[in-house]
Design goal:
The complex is a heterodimer of chains A (412) and B (142). Chain A is α/β, with parallel strands linked by helices and 412 residues long. The relative contact order of chain A is 0.17. Chain B is 56% helix and 11% strand. Chain B is built from seven helices and two strands, in the order ααββααααα. The two termini of chain B are 28 Å apart. The chains are: A alpha/beta (412), B mainly alpha (142). The complex binds pyridoxal-5'-phosphate.
Protein backbone atom coordinates (compact mmCIF):
# COMPACT_ATOMS: atom_id res chain seq x y z
CA UNK A 1 0.00 0.00 0.00
CA UNK A 2 1.26 3.44 -0.91
CA UNK A 3 1.71 5.75 2.06
CA UNK A 4 1.95 9.49 2.04
CA UNK A 5 5.14 11.12 3.24
CA UNK A 6 3.53 12.44 6.35
CA UNK A 7 2.63 9.11 7.91
CA UNK A 8 5.18 6.96 6.14
CA UNK A 9 7.51 6.26 9.02
CA UNK A 10 5.04 5.33 11.67
CA UNK A 11 1.97 3.90 10.06
CA UNK A 12 3.66 1.54 7.64
CA UNK A 13 5.70 -0.05 10.40
CA UNK A 14 2.70 -0.10 12.72
CA UNK A 15 0.61 -1.84 10.07
CA UNK A 16 3.19 -4.60 9.84
CA UNK A 17 2.31 -5.51 13.40
CA UNK A 18 -1.28 -6.31 12.37
CA UNK A 19 -1.34 -9.48 10.31
CA UNK A 20 -5.11 -9.34 9.85
CA UNK A 21 -4.75 -6.15 7.80
CA UNK A 22 -2.60 -7.86 5.22
CA UNK A 23 -5.42 -9.81 3.64
CA UNK A 24 -7.51 -9.27 0.56
CA UNK A 25 -11.21 -10.09 0.40
CA UNK A 26 -12.94 -10.61 -2.93
CA UNK A 27 -9.59 -9.82 -4.51
CA UNK A 28 -9.34 -6.38 -2.90
CA UNK A 29 -7.11 -5.33 0.00
CA UNK A 30 -9.07 -5.08 3.23
CA UNK A 31 -9.79 -1.56 4.49
CA UNK A 32 -10.92 -1.84 8.08
CA UNK A 33 -12.91 1.18 9.24
CA UNK A 34 -14.93 -0.40 12.04
CA UNK A 35 -12.54 0.29 14.87
CA UNK A 36 -15.16 1.62 17.26
CA UNK A 37 -16.72 -1.85 17.23
CA UNK A 38 -13.38 -3.48 17.93
CA UNK A 39 -9.80 -2.80 16.98
CA UNK A 40 -7.47 -5.32 15.40
CA UNK A 41 -4.77 -6.94 17.52
CA UNK A 42 -1.03 -6.46 17.13
CA UNK A 43 1.30 -9.46 16.98
CA UNK A 44 2.56 -8.74 20.48
CA UNK A 45 -0.92 -9.44 21.86
CA UNK A 46 -1.54 -12.48 19.67
CA UNK A 47 1.86 -13.96 20.49
CA UNK A 48 1.46 -13.34 24.19
CA UNK A 49 -1.79 -15.28 24.36
CA UNK A 50 -0.17 -18.07 22.43
CA UNK A 51 2.86 -17.96 24.72
CA UNK A 52 0.75 -18.01 27.85
CA UNK A 53 -1.11 -21.15 26.80
CA UNK A 54 2.09 -22.75 25.53
CA UNK A 55 4.25 -22.05 28.56
CA UNK A 56 2.43 -20.77 31.63
CA UNK A 57 -1.17 -21.98 31.60
CA UNK A 58 -2.40 -22.48 35.12
CA UNK A 59 -5.06 -21.22 37.47
CA UNK A 60 -4.03 -18.17 39.42
CA UNK A 61 -3.85 -17.14 43.09
CA UNK A 62 -4.26 -20.80 44.11
CA UNK A 63 -1.52 -23.18 43.12
CA UNK A 64 1.84 -23.39 44.84
CA UNK A 65 3.67 -24.53 41.75
CA UNK A 66 5.87 -22.83 39.22
CA UNK A 67 3.22 -22.46 36.53
CA UNK A 68 0.71 -20.94 38.95
CA UNK A 69 3.36 -18.52 40.17
CA UNK A 70 4.19 -17.39 36.66
CA UNK A 71 0.57 -17.06 35.60
CA UNK A 72 -0.34 -15.16 38.75
CA UNK A 73 2.62 -12.83 38.38
CA UNK A 74 1.75 -12.05 34.75
CA UNK A 75 -1.91 -11.50 35.61
CA UNK A 76 -1.08 -9.16 38.49
CA UNK A 77 1.47 -7.34 36.35
CA UNK A 78 -1.34 -6.30 34.04
CA UNK A 79 -3.17 -4.86 37.01
CA UNK A 80 -0.14 -2.69 37.75
CA UNK A 81 0.11 -1.65 34.10
CA UNK A 82 -3.56 -0.71 33.96
CA UNK A 83 -3.22 1.33 37.16
CA UNK A 84 -0.30 3.20 35.64
CA UNK A 85 -2.06 3.55 32.27
CA UNK A 86 -5.03 5.39 33.75
CA UNK A 87 -3.06 6.91 36.65
CA UNK A 88 -4.95 5.17 39.45
CA UNK A 89 -3.58 5.52 42.97
CA UNK A 90 -2.99 1.84 43.42
CA UNK A 91 -3.49 -1.42 41.57
CA UNK A 92 -6.10 -2.65 44.09
CA UNK A 93 -8.44 -0.13 42.51
CA UNK A 94 -8.33 -2.06 39.24
CA UNK A 95 -10.92 -4.82 38.84
CA UNK A 96 -10.85 -7.14 35.87
CA UNK A 97 -14.21 -7.78 34.24
CA UNK A 98 -15.48 -9.19 30.96
CA UNK A 99 -15.71 -5.73 29.43
CA UNK A 100 -17.35 -2.34 29.73
CA UNK A 101 -20.82 -3.88 29.85
CA UNK A 102 -19.82 -6.13 32.72
CA UNK A 103 -18.15 -3.24 34.56
CA UNK A 104 -21.26 -1.07 34.28
CA UNK A 105 -23.50 -3.91 35.43
CA UNK A 106 -21.23 -4.39 38.43
CA UNK A 107 -21.59 -0.76 39.47
CA UNK A 108 -25.31 -0.65 38.74
CA UNK A 109 -25.86 -3.75 40.84
CA UNK A 110 -23.47 -3.14 43.73
CA UNK A 111 -23.63 0.64 44.01
CA UNK A 112 -27.14 1.16 42.66
CA UNK A 113 -28.46 -1.79 44.61
CA UNK A 114 -27.08 -0.52 47.89
CA UNK A 115 -27.69 3.23 47.76
CA UNK A 116 -30.78 3.84 45.63
CA UNK A 117 -34.01 4.48 47.52
CA UNK A 118 -37.48 5.02 46.08
CA UNK A 119 -37.63 8.43 44.38
CA UNK A 120 -33.85 8.73 44.01
CA UNK A 121 -32.54 9.64 40.59
CA UNK A 122 -29.90 8.29 38.25
CA UNK A 123 -28.73 10.52 35.39
CA UNK A 124 -27.45 9.30 32.06
CA UNK A 125 -27.13 11.16 28.76
CA UNK A 126 -29.13 10.83 25.58
CA UNK A 127 -26.09 9.47 23.70
CA UNK A 128 -25.43 6.41 25.89
CA UNK A 129 -24.66 2.97 24.53
CA UNK A 130 -27.34 0.41 25.45
CA UNK A 131 -24.90 -1.04 27.94
CA UNK A 132 -25.03 2.22 29.88
CA UNK A 133 -28.83 2.39 29.71
CA UNK A 134 -30.26 -1.04 30.37
CA UNK A 135 -28.39 -1.88 33.61
CA UNK A 136 -29.70 1.40 35.06
CA UNK A 137 -33.23 0.69 33.89
CA UNK A 138 -33.09 -2.66 35.64
CA UNK A 139 -31.72 -1.34 38.94
CA UNK A 140 -33.99 1.74 38.92
CA UNK A 141 -37.00 -0.48 38.47
CA UNK A 142 -35.92 -2.68 41.38
CA UNK A 143 -35.19 0.28 43.64
CA UNK A 144 -38.17 2.33 42.44
CA UNK A 145 -35.69 5.03 41.49
CA UNK A 146 -36.04 7.31 38.47
CA UNK A 147 -33.79 7.31 35.42
CA UNK A 148 -33.37 10.78 33.95
CA UNK A 149 -31.85 11.70 30.64
CA UNK A 150 -29.49 14.59 30.01
CA UNK A 151 -30.41 16.09 26.61
CA UNK A 152 -27.98 17.01 23.84
CA UNK A 153 -27.90 19.67 21.14
CA UNK A 154 -27.95 19.28 17.34
CA UNK A 155 -24.21 18.88 17.18
CA UNK A 156 -24.44 15.99 19.60
CA UNK A 157 -23.09 17.77 22.67
CA UNK A 158 -24.41 17.50 26.21
CA UNK A 159 -26.41 20.56 27.25
CA UNK A 160 -24.56 21.51 30.39
CA UNK A 161 -27.22 23.96 31.57
CA UNK A 162 -29.86 21.25 31.28
CA UNK A 163 -27.59 18.88 33.14
CA UNK A 164 -27.17 21.38 35.97
CA UNK A 165 -30.93 21.83 36.11
CA UNK A 166 -31.44 18.09 36.41
CA UNK A 167 -29.02 17.82 39.33
CA UNK A 168 -30.69 17.80 42.75
CA UNK A 169 -30.45 16.21 46.19
CA UNK A 170 -32.29 13.27 44.69
CA UNK A 171 -29.49 12.64 42.18
CA UNK A 172 -27.45 9.73 43.52
CA UNK A 173 -25.60 8.38 40.50
CA UNK A 174 -24.50 9.86 37.18
CA UNK A 175 -23.24 7.59 34.46
CA UNK A 176 -22.07 9.13 31.20
CA UNK A 177 -20.03 8.15 28.23
CA UNK A 178 -16.62 9.77 27.85
CA UNK A 179 -16.55 9.51 24.06
CA UNK A 180 -19.69 8.57 22.14
CA UNK A 181 -19.29 5.51 19.94
CA UNK A 182 -21.85 6.89 17.49
CA UNK A 183 -21.19 10.63 17.46
CA UNK A 184 -17.55 10.75 18.44
CA UNK A 185 -18.38 13.54 20.89
CA UNK A 186 -15.84 13.97 23.67
CA UNK A 187 -17.91 14.89 26.69
CA UNK A 188 -16.76 17.40 29.33
CA UNK A 189 -16.64 14.66 31.95
CA UNK A 190 -14.35 16.54 34.33
CA UNK A 191 -16.91 19.30 34.65
CA UNK A 192 -19.75 16.80 35.00
CA UNK A 193 -17.90 14.95 37.74
CA UNK A 194 -17.13 18.06 39.75
CA UNK A 195 -20.71 19.33 39.50
CA UNK A 196 -22.03 15.93 40.54
CA UNK A 197 -19.71 15.78 43.52
CA UNK A 198 -20.99 19.14 44.72
CA UNK A 199 -24.34 17.38 45.08
CA UNK A 200 -22.83 14.30 46.67
CA UNK A 201 -23.62 12.07 43.67
CA UNK A 202 -21.31 9.30 42.50
CA UNK A 203 -20.08 9.24 38.93
CA UNK A 204 -19.29 6.37 36.58
CA UNK A 205 -17.63 7.14 33.26
CA UNK A 206 -18.05 4.76 30.32
CA UNK A 207 -14.60 4.99 28.78
CA UNK A 208 -14.96 2.22 26.18
CA UNK A 209 -14.20 4.61 23.31
CA UNK A 210 -11.82 6.85 25.21
CA UNK A 211 -8.96 4.59 26.29
CA UNK A 212 -7.79 3.84 22.73
CA UNK A 213 -7.58 7.54 21.83
CA UNK A 214 -7.01 9.73 24.87
CA UNK A 215 -4.71 9.75 27.85
CA UNK A 216 -6.94 8.90 30.79
CA UNK A 217 -6.10 10.19 34.24
CA UNK A 218 -8.69 9.00 36.74
CA UNK A 219 -7.07 10.98 39.51
CA UNK A 220 -7.29 14.25 37.68
CA UNK A 221 -10.82 13.44 36.47
CA UNK A 222 -11.70 12.50 40.05
CA UNK A 223 -14.34 10.05 38.80
CA UNK A 224 -15.61 7.44 41.22
CA UNK A 225 -15.67 4.67 38.64
CA UNK A 226 -14.26 4.30 35.14
CA UNK A 227 -15.16 1.40 32.83
CA UNK A 228 -13.52 0.19 29.63
CA UNK A 229 -12.93 -2.82 27.36
CA UNK A 230 -9.66 -4.41 26.29
CA UNK A 231 -10.85 -5.23 22.79
CA UNK A 232 -11.41 -1.62 21.78
CA UNK A 233 -7.80 -0.73 22.61
CA UNK A 234 -5.93 -3.37 20.59
CA UNK A 235 -6.36 -5.99 23.33
CA UNK A 236 -8.24 -9.29 23.53
CA UNK A 237 -12.02 -9.64 23.66
CA UNK A 238 -13.65 -10.79 26.88
CA UNK A 239 -11.54 -8.68 29.20
CA UNK A 240 -12.36 -5.29 30.60
CA UNK A 241 -11.61 -3.05 33.51
CA UNK A 242 -13.49 -1.32 36.23
CA UNK A 243 -11.57 1.33 38.08
CA UNK A 244 -13.11 2.38 41.39
CA UNK A 245 -11.91 4.51 44.27
CA UNK A 246 -10.65 2.32 47.10
CA UNK A 247 -13.03 3.62 49.77
CA UNK A 248 -16.01 3.03 47.51
CA UNK A 249 -14.97 -0.41 46.38
CA UNK A 250 -14.34 -1.45 49.96
CA UNK A 251 -17.77 -0.27 51.04
CA UNK A 252 -19.68 -1.91 48.18
CA UNK A 253 -21.24 -5.36 48.45
CA UNK A 254 -19.90 -7.96 45.98
CA UNK A 255 -21.50 -8.39 42.57
CA UNK A 256 -21.17 -12.14 42.07
CA UNK A 257 -20.40 -14.89 44.54
CA UNK A 258 -18.04 -17.79 44.02
CA UNK A 259 -14.44 -18.83 44.35
CA UNK A 260 -11.65 -16.26 44.57
CA UNK A 261 -13.85 -13.53 46.03
CA UNK A 262 -14.11 -15.03 49.53
CA UNK A 263 -11.91 -15.19 52.60
CA UNK A 264 -13.77 -17.89 54.52
CA UNK A 265 -16.90 -19.79 53.65
CA UNK A 266 -19.18 -21.71 55.97
CA UNK A 267 -22.87 -22.44 55.71
CA UNK A 268 -23.65 -19.95 58.42
CA UNK A 269 -21.31 -17.13 57.54
CA UNK A 270 -19.02 -16.13 54.70
CA UNK A 271 -16.47 -13.35 54.76
CA UNK A 272 -15.32 -11.68 51.60
CA UNK A 273 -11.87 -11.20 50.24
CA UNK A 274 -10.13 -7.82 50.00
CA UNK A 275 -10.45 -5.64 46.92
CA UNK A 276 -9.90 -6.19 44.05
CA UNK A 277 -10.52 -9.94 44.54
CA UNK A 278 -13.90 -9.35 46.17
CA UNK A 279 -15.17 -8.41 42.72
CA UNK A 280 -13.44 -11.14 40.72
CA UNK A 281 -15.49 -14.25 41.41
CA UNK A 282 -14.46 -17.42 39.61
CA UNK A 283 -11.55 -18.14 37.31
CA UNK A 284 -11.03 -15.01 35.24
CA UNK A 285 -9.97 -14.58 31.62
CA UNK A 286 -6.31 -15.06 32.52
CA UNK A 287 -4.98 -15.17 28.96
CA UNK A 288 -7.02 -12.11 28.07
CA UNK A 289 -5.77 -10.11 31.03
CA UNK A 290 -2.17 -11.03 30.25
CA UNK A 291 -2.72 -10.11 26.60
CA UNK A 292 -4.12 -6.75 27.66
CA UNK A 293 -0.76 -5.87 29.14
CA UNK A 294 0.83 -6.17 25.70
CA UNK A 295 -1.92 -3.98 24.24
CA UNK A 296 -1.14 -1.28 26.78
CA UNK A 297 2.54 -1.57 25.94
CA UNK A 298 1.67 -1.27 22.26
CA UNK A 299 -0.26 1.95 22.87
CA UNK A 300 2.44 3.35 25.12
CA UNK A 301 5.18 2.48 22.63
CA UNK A 302 3.52 4.80 20.10
CA UNK A 303 2.19 7.29 22.61
CA UNK A 304 -1.38 8.46 22.99
CA UNK A 305 -0.46 11.95 21.78
CA UNK A 306 0.92 10.52 18.59
CA UNK A 307 -2.12 8.32 18.16
CA UNK A 308 -4.45 11.23 18.72
CA UNK A 309 -2.61 13.46 16.27
CA UNK A 310 -2.64 10.85 13.55
CA UNK A 311 -6.32 10.08 14.04
CA UNK A 312 -7.14 13.77 14.07
CA UNK A 313 -5.59 14.22 10.66
CA UNK A 314 -7.38 11.17 9.33
CA UNK A 315 -10.66 12.48 10.75
CA UNK A 316 -10.13 15.88 9.19
CA UNK A 317 -9.32 14.45 5.80
CA UNK A 318 -12.30 12.09 5.85
CA UNK A 319 -14.71 14.78 7.09
CA UNK A 320 -13.54 17.28 4.48
CA UNK A 321 -13.84 14.83 1.61
CA UNK A 322 -17.17 13.40 2.70
CA UNK A 323 -18.64 16.88 3.04
CA UNK A 324 -18.22 17.32 -0.68
CA UNK A 325 -20.67 14.53 -1.44
CA UNK A 326 -24.09 16.00 -2.26
CA UNK A 327 -26.60 15.00 0.37
CA UNK A 328 -23.97 14.09 2.99
CA UNK A 329 -25.63 14.33 6.40
CA UNK A 330 -23.22 13.90 9.28
CA UNK A 331 -24.60 12.99 12.67
CA UNK A 332 -22.37 14.32 15.42
CA UNK A 333 -20.47 17.49 14.66
CA UNK A 334 -19.24 18.31 18.15
CA UNK A 335 -16.37 20.71 18.51
CA UNK A 336 -14.48 18.10 20.55
CA UNK A 337 -14.62 14.93 18.53
CA UNK A 338 -12.80 11.60 18.29
CA UNK A 339 -12.13 9.72 15.06
CA UNK A 340 -15.68 8.54 14.38
CA UNK A 341 -17.99 9.71 11.59
CA UNK A 342 -21.65 8.73 11.56
CA UNK A 343 -23.54 9.79 8.48
CA UNK A 344 -26.37 9.33 6.10
CA UNK A 345 -26.46 10.16 2.43
CA UNK A 346 -29.70 11.53 1.13
CA UNK A 347 -31.58 9.03 -0.96
CA UNK A 348 -29.36 6.09 -0.02
CA UNK A 349 -30.03 3.62 2.77
CA UNK A 350 -27.03 2.98 5.07
CA UNK A 351 -27.72 -0.76 4.93
CA UNK A 352 -27.13 -0.74 1.17
CA UNK A 353 -23.94 1.26 1.62
CA UNK A 354 -22.62 -1.24 4.17
CA UNK A 355 -23.26 -4.21 1.92
CA UNK A 356 -21.86 -2.61 -1.21
CA UNK A 357 -18.76 -1.31 0.57
CA UNK A 358 -18.24 -4.78 2.02
CA UNK A 359 -18.27 -6.19 -1.49
CA UNK A 360 -15.41 -3.75 -2.18
CA UNK A 361 -13.65 -5.07 0.92
CA UNK A 362 -14.25 -1.92 2.96
CA UNK A 363 -15.52 -2.73 6.45
CA UNK A 364 -17.80 -0.13 8.01
CA UNK A 365 -20.74 -0.41 10.38
CA UNK A 366 -24.35 0.42 9.67
CA UNK A 367 -27.38 0.49 11.91
CA UNK A 368 -28.12 2.02 15.28
CA UNK A 369 -24.74 1.22 16.86
CA UNK A 370 -26.41 0.13 20.13
CA UNK A 371 -27.67 3.68 20.63
CA UNK A 372 -31.30 3.47 19.62
CA UNK A 373 -32.50 6.39 21.79
CA UNK A 374 -29.88 8.56 20.08
CA UNK A 375 -31.23 7.54 16.67
CA UNK A 376 -34.64 8.60 17.87
CA UNK A 377 -33.24 11.93 19.04
CA UNK A 378 -31.91 12.60 15.54
CA UNK A 379 -34.96 11.06 13.94
CA UNK A 380 -33.08 8.56 11.80
CA UNK A 381 -33.41 4.79 11.46
CA UNK A 382 -29.69 4.29 11.50
CA UNK A 383 -26.45 5.60 10.10
CA UNK A 384 -23.34 4.44 8.35
CA UNK A 385 -20.31 4.79 10.59
CA UNK A 386 -16.60 4.82 9.91
CA UNK A 387 -14.16 4.84 12.81
CA UNK A 388 -10.41 5.09 12.56
CA UNK A 389 -7.43 3.69 14.45
CA UNK A 390 -3.69 4.28 14.46
CA UNK A 391 -3.10 1.90 11.54
CA UNK A 392 -5.48 3.61 9.10
CA UNK A 393 -3.84 5.55 6.28
CA UNK A 394 -4.78 8.59 4.23
CA UNK A 395 -4.87 6.33 1.20
CA UNK A 396 -7.48 4.17 2.85
CA UNK A 397 -9.58 7.25 3.55
CA UNK A 398 -9.24 8.38 -0.06
CA UNK A 399 -10.11 4.94 -1.35
CA UNK A 400 -13.14 4.76 0.93
CA UNK A 401 -14.49 8.16 -0.08
CA UNK A 402 -13.83 7.52 -3.74
CA UNK A 403 -15.63 4.17 -3.60
CA UNK A 404 -18.49 5.72 -1.66
CA UNK A 405 -18.96 8.48 -4.25
CA UNK A 406 -19.06 5.87 -6.96
CA UNK A 407 -21.67 3.80 -5.14
CA UNK A 408 -23.81 6.80 -4.32
CA UNK A 409 -23.89 7.78 -8.00
CA UNK A 410 -25.01 4.30 -8.89
CA UNK A 411 -27.63 4.03 -6.15
CA UNK A 412 -29.30 7.39 -6.65
CA UNK B 1 -43.13 -22.74 -14.20
CA UNK B 2 -43.42 -24.41 -10.81
CA UNK B 3 -42.16 -22.91 -7.57
CA UNK B 4 -39.36 -25.43 -7.61
CA UNK B 5 -38.38 -24.61 -11.18
CA UNK B 6 -38.31 -20.91 -10.41
CA UNK B 7 -35.97 -21.56 -7.51
CA UNK B 8 -33.71 -23.64 -9.75
CA UNK B 9 -33.72 -20.83 -12.29
CA UNK B 10 -32.53 -18.35 -9.68
CA UNK B 11 -29.86 -20.74 -8.43
CA UNK B 12 -28.63 -21.12 -12.00
CA UNK B 13 -28.43 -17.38 -12.58
CA UNK B 14 -26.45 -16.78 -9.42
CA UNK B 15 -24.15 -19.68 -10.18
CA UNK B 16 -22.96 -17.77 -13.22
CA UNK B 17 -21.96 -14.88 -10.97
CA UNK B 18 -20.81 -17.00 -8.07
CA UNK B 19 -17.20 -15.96 -7.85
CA UNK B 20 -18.02 -12.27 -7.90
CA UNK B 21 -19.79 -10.90 -4.87
CA UNK B 22 -20.09 -7.43 -6.34
CA UNK B 23 -21.68 -8.61 -9.54
CA UNK B 24 -24.11 -10.77 -7.60
CA UNK B 25 -25.20 -7.83 -5.50
CA UNK B 26 -25.52 -5.57 -8.50
CA UNK B 27 -27.62 -8.20 -10.24
CA UNK B 28 -29.80 -8.48 -7.15
CA UNK B 29 -30.31 -4.71 -7.15
CA UNK B 30 -31.24 -4.81 -10.83
CA UNK B 31 -33.85 -7.48 -10.15
CA UNK B 32 -35.30 -5.31 -7.40
CA UNK B 33 -35.55 -2.43 -9.85
CA UNK B 34 -37.77 -4.51 -12.09
CA UNK B 35 -40.43 -5.12 -9.45
CA UNK B 36 -43.90 -3.81 -10.25
CA UNK B 37 -44.10 -0.37 -8.63
CA UNK B 38 -45.62 -0.55 -5.17
CA UNK B 39 -48.50 1.86 -4.49
CA UNK B 40 -47.25 4.70 -2.28
CA UNK B 41 -50.51 4.75 -0.30
CA UNK B 42 -49.87 1.18 0.82
CA UNK B 43 -46.50 2.00 2.38
CA UNK B 44 -48.09 1.99 5.81
CA UNK B 45 -47.76 -0.04 8.99
CA UNK B 46 -50.58 -2.29 7.81
CA UNK B 47 -48.45 -3.66 5.02
CA UNK B 48 -45.08 -3.74 6.74
CA UNK B 49 -43.39 -7.10 7.26
CA UNK B 50 -42.50 -7.37 10.93
CA UNK B 51 -39.10 -8.75 11.85
CA UNK B 52 -37.05 -7.13 9.10
CA UNK B 53 -34.33 -4.64 9.96
CA UNK B 54 -34.99 -2.63 6.84
CA UNK B 55 -38.53 -1.70 5.92
CA UNK B 56 -40.38 -4.17 3.72
CA UNK B 57 -43.95 -3.65 2.57
CA UNK B 58 -46.03 -6.36 1.00
CA UNK B 59 -49.55 -7.31 -0.03
CA UNK B 60 -51.13 -10.12 -1.99
CA UNK B 61 -54.16 -10.42 -4.25
CA UNK B 62 -56.17 -13.31 -5.55
CA UNK B 63 -56.12 -13.17 -9.35
CA UNK B 64 -58.03 -16.00 -11.02
CA UNK B 65 -57.23 -18.40 -8.19
CA UNK B 66 -53.56 -17.42 -8.23
CA UNK B 67 -51.81 -15.42 -5.55
CA UNK B 68 -50.06 -12.34 -6.87
CA UNK B 69 -47.63 -10.53 -4.59
CA UNK B 70 -46.50 -6.96 -4.63
CA UNK B 71 -43.57 -5.83 -2.46
CA UNK B 72 -41.11 -3.04 -1.87
CA UNK B 73 -38.33 -2.05 0.53
CA UNK B 74 -36.53 1.12 1.54
CA UNK B 75 -33.18 -0.52 0.85
CA UNK B 76 -32.21 -1.63 -2.63
CA UNK B 77 -30.52 -4.83 -1.51
CA UNK B 78 -33.55 -5.98 0.48
CA UNK B 79 -35.76 -5.00 -2.42
CA UNK B 80 -33.69 -7.31 -4.59
CA UNK B 81 -34.12 -10.13 -2.11
CA UNK B 82 -37.85 -9.71 -1.79
CA UNK B 83 -38.09 -9.55 -5.58
CA UNK B 84 -36.65 -13.06 -5.68
CA UNK B 85 -39.41 -14.28 -3.39
CA UNK B 86 -42.07 -12.51 -5.43
CA UNK B 87 -40.69 -14.16 -8.53
CA UNK B 88 -40.75 -17.60 -6.91
CA UNK B 89 -44.24 -17.42 -5.36
CA UNK B 90 -46.25 -15.00 -7.48
CA UNK B 91 -48.79 -16.52 -9.85
CA UNK B 92 -49.10 -19.81 -7.99
CA UNK B 93 -52.03 -21.38 -6.21
CA UNK B 94 -52.26 -20.64 -2.52
CA UNK B 95 -52.07 -24.33 -1.78
CA UNK B 96 -48.81 -24.72 -3.67
CA UNK B 97 -47.29 -21.75 -1.89
CA UNK B 98 -48.22 -23.25 1.46
CA UNK B 99 -46.73 -26.61 0.63
CA UNK B 100 -43.44 -25.63 -0.98
CA UNK B 101 -40.21 -25.09 0.91
CA UNK B 102 -37.91 -22.21 0.06
CA UNK B 103 -34.38 -23.53 -0.41
CA UNK B 104 -32.71 -21.22 -2.91
CA UNK B 105 -31.23 -18.68 -0.43
CA UNK B 106 -28.68 -21.11 0.91
CA UNK B 107 -27.82 -22.31 -2.59
CA UNK B 108 -27.07 -18.80 -3.81
CA UNK B 109 -25.07 -18.01 -0.66
CA UNK B 110 -27.46 -15.33 0.46
CA UNK B 111 -25.71 -14.83 3.79
CA UNK B 112 -22.81 -13.36 1.82
CA UNK B 113 -25.04 -10.49 0.75
CA UNK B 114 -26.92 -9.80 3.89
CA UNK B 115 -24.95 -11.34 6.74
CA UNK B 116 -26.24 -14.25 8.73
CA UNK B 117 -27.99 -12.00 11.25
CA UNK B 118 -30.36 -10.63 8.67
CA UNK B 119 -31.63 -13.97 7.50
CA UNK B 120 -34.25 -13.67 10.26
CA UNK B 121 -35.72 -10.84 8.26
CA UNK B 122 -35.76 -13.02 5.18
CA UNK B 123 -37.60 -15.77 7.06
CA UNK B 124 -40.09 -13.15 8.17
CA UNK B 125 -40.80 -12.29 4.53
CA UNK B 126 -41.37 -15.93 3.62
CA UNK B 127 -43.65 -16.33 6.60
CA UNK B 128 -45.63 -13.25 5.65
CA UNK B 129 -46.08 -14.55 2.10
CA UNK B 130 -47.34 -17.87 3.41
CA UNK B 131 -49.74 -16.06 5.72
CA UNK B 132 -51.18 -14.16 2.77
CA UNK B 133 -51.51 -17.44 0.87
CA UNK B 134 -53.23 -19.02 3.85
CA UNK B 135 -55.73 -16.18 4.10
CA UNK B 136 -56.53 -16.44 0.40
CA UNK B 137 -56.77 -20.21 0.62
CA UNK B 138 -59.30 -20.02 3.43
CA UNK B 139 -61.35 -17.45 1.54
CA UNK B 140 -61.38 -19.58 -1.58
CA UNK B 141 -62.62 -22.62 0.32
CA UNK B 142 -65.53 -20.76 1.84
C1 LIG C 1 -19.44 3.72 24.37
C2 LIG C 1 -19.54 2.26 24.60
N1 LIG C 1 -19.95 1.79 25.78
C3 LIG C 1 -20.03 0.48 26.04
C4 LIG C 1 -19.72 -0.46 25.09
C5 LIG C 1 -19.84 -1.92 25.43
O1 LIG C 1 -18.59 -2.51 25.43
P1 LIG C 1 -18.43 -4.09 25.52
O2 LIG C 1 -19.33 -4.66 24.47
O3 LIG C 1 -17.00 -4.32 25.24
O4 LIG C 1 -18.84 -4.51 26.88
C6 LIG C 1 -19.30 -0.04 23.84
C7 LIG C 1 -18.99 -1.02 22.79
O5 LIG C 1 -19.63 -1.18 21.80
C8 LIG C 1 -19.20 1.35 23.58
O6 LIG C 1 -18.80 1.80 22.40
Amino acid sequence: MKLSIKDQVDVSSIRKQFPVLEQSINGKPLIYLDNAATTQKPLAVINEINRYYTEDNSNIHRGMHALAERATAAYENTRKSVARFINANESEEIIFTKGTTDSINLVAHSLGGSILKPGDEVLISCMEHHSNIVPWQIICKQAKAVLKIIPINKRGEILIEEFLNLLSERTKIISVVHISNTLGTVNPVKRIISEAHKRGAKVLIDGAQATPHHKIDVKSLNCDFYAFSGHKMYGPTGVGVLYGKRTLLEALPPYQGGGEMIKDVSFTQTSYNEIPYKFEAGTPNIAGVIGLNRAIEFIESIGLNQIRNHEKEILLRATTQLSEITGFQPMGTALEKASVISFNIEGVHPFDLGILLDAKSIAIRTGHHCTQPLMERFNVEGTARVSFAIYNTFEEVDQFVWTLCDLVKKLR
Amino acid sequence: MSIKMRQEEIIGEFKLLESDLEMSINYLIELGDQLTPFPENKKTDDFIVKGCQSKVWMFAEDKNQNVVYNADSNTVVTKGLVSLLVRVFSGHKAEEILNEEIYFPEKIGMSRFIGSQRSNGFSAMVKQMKLYALAINIKEKK
